[in-house]
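thread: overnight batch results

M.L. [08:02]
morning all. the overnight job finished for the chain we discussed friday. pasting input first so we're all looking at the same thing
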Amino acid sequence: MQEKIIKSAVFLLLLVNGILDWRKGEVSLLSLALFGAVGIGLNVWLGYQSFLEAAGGAGLGVLLLLTAFLTREAIGFGDGLLLLVTGIYLGFWENLNLLFLGAVLSAVILGAGMLADKVKLKDRVPLVPFLLLGFIGRLFL
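M.L. [08:03]
and the structure it wrote out:
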């Protein structure tokens, strides 16, 4: 039961922000704060993972924030914040898996777009929709 609650919360977080990222190129800071607080509360209430697992998952988001800073947002701060929040729910390894699947899907789809001359190398592309697709795919594996 608790796994369904966690997966549903992550799905909703990715769905809301995936749509926003696709349409506007941004994520909702309000939703990140809300889902982050709920994630911490659920973790305390349900006790489904240790503090270190949640902190490790959030730490992956912190690494992306640092990467965003160092690369002048080659990857956006919003993506780092979003992965910080998903890490609270998923822990380090599941969050890393989410990032990996999203990056691979992004590379494959954008690579095809480049071959078809629809996408340019310097185009800014939202990451969250690819994270959502990866998460949905993972639910069925």
